[in-house]
Amino acid sequence: MSDDSFENLSERKRQILLNAIEEYIQVATPITSSNIRNKCCTDLSTATLRNELNALEAMGYLRQLHTSGGRVPTSKGYRFFVNTMMADVPMDKNVLGQIHQVFEQRTVYLGDMINEIADIVSKATSYPTVVMLKGFEKLTINNVKIIPLLTGQALILIETNSGVINNSMNANLDMPAQTYIDAGNFLTRTFAGHTVADMIKGMNTYRDDMDKELFEYKAIFDTLIVSLNKLIDTLTENNILSKGELQLLNAPEYSDISSAKRVIDVLQNPEEIEQLFDDDVDETGEVSFKIGAEIPVKDLQDCAIARADYQVGDESVASIGIIGPQRMDYAKIAGALKFVVGEFNNLKALTTASKGEEDEQKSQ
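^ thats the sequence. predicted structure below, dont judge the formating
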């Protein structure tokens, strides 16, 4: 919903509505004229404020719970609040500090890091967090290492423009360790700058055309192709992580177990979760919100969902979503999501810089 639909609000109505929603987000207490007067409008009489609240209710921004009770924001009211707030998203220092620490002590394995981030964001915001992984096979390769282990396995490390994809494969203990290392070097020289999918497809072609010098790589490539295809299938089939479902029970809106159960059931349903991430985001790092009826899943239409995508080039590698009541703290959540995506982009820049320094050292 664009800002144009809110042009009929006077400046006074805008300020009353913003303060009313902010207060409701913080304390979950119905909005009254006396509360608003104490918070922001001491120069207005209670009667004037009551008239303004009546007008905001008639315009669809607020609704009254009971005839003699206070008001609560509607989905339209929350949408106005979000559109206004997103122009200047504040950062919650405690949340950002926890996230930054994960990146400081990071594993370079993208899947592990996303799992950690989902857990931290869920705990920090007190709402369930969902991460959908996608497009791993489209990441661009920087380096490939195959490291034989004493256990009869070989570790596969594929450094991409977004982190390291790691997996293992069966190894032939009769084959010299250097052969596996040389095979990794060959793959780096051949496929650096290409996607993981290109490498898997290309290995089949190279395997069939290998001359005697490279013949010993055939067995390694056969096993490696099978291993990588299984990895991509696994990432495709198990591409949704959810954390913190039970945190919903801490929100007043879900004190009724049946209400919380409807949301938790959705979080356990991959097909419904995928609907939340079907549409593309316009810009890397931008946080978007769906509120109420804007959400395509019926059982979540009394909720709000914040989402940000981590993209590499034109490809979305992961979508991160936070699900909570419409009363969620939009500023805190938006700040956390923007920071997470920014830290991923910083990590990508550091990886690129590190690779550039290595190449420079090799050329000297």
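The longest helix spans residues 330-363.
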